[in-house]
Design brief:
Shape: globular
Largest sheet: 3 strands, mixed
Low-confidence stretches: 152-162
Number of helices: 6
Helix content: 40-55%
Length: 162
């Protein structure tokens, strides 16, 4: 499968970034929902890097929820962090006062025709296999403390899920 080839190539080039992305993706899995929805700025950035390596980055619809006064800075931050053009990010005005300065970002993915309804099961399989192959199993998986519903990211204190 091509996804394994791309992951393997990335791990040969930059194993630290690859491991970080695999861990972010693994921590984003929820039992009740197929799509991976990374929470927290660092996980979202790492996850987008993984999806780009899988040649799926351009298939993302990126929505940024941000206060109007922070719009320009947030667009610049997320555009640079995710490696996408600022005009590719959809802006949704924030009404909640707890939105962080750089806003909250969310992804929606359009599946390639070849994968169709198998996009997320395929991504999950490659992610978990990659975690085992490349020693990228999250520590919380090892000690049994992992709970995707209570993930917390220190950089997002006070943020409301996007």
């Amino acid at each position: 499968m091509q996804l394994f080839k791309w992951l393997s190539d990335w791990m040969a080039e930059d194993p630290e970034s690859g491991r970080r992305a695999l861990i972010a993706a693994a921590e984003s899995v929820q039992r009740s929902k197929a799509p991976l929805r990374p929470l927290g700025r660092s996980r979202q950035i790492a996850f987008m890097a993984l999806m780009k390596k899988f040649r799926l980055g351009a298939r993302a619809t990126i929505t940024l929820t941000v206060k109007e006064e922070n719009r320009k800075a947030a667009l610049k931050f997320w555009g640079q962090s995710l490696g996408v053009a600022q005009n590719a990010i959809i802006i949704r005005p924030a009404e909640d006062i707890r939105i962080p300065k750089h806003g909250n970002v969310s992804f929606d993915w359009k599946a390639p025709h070849k994968l169709g309804k198998y996009l997320w099961p395929t991504i999950r399989f490659v992610v978990f296999t990659g975690c085992v192959l490349y020693d990228a199993v999250p520590e919380s998986f090892r000690d049994g403390s992992f709970d995707a519903d209570t993930l917390d990211d220190e950089s997002e204190k006070g943020a409301v899920p996007g």
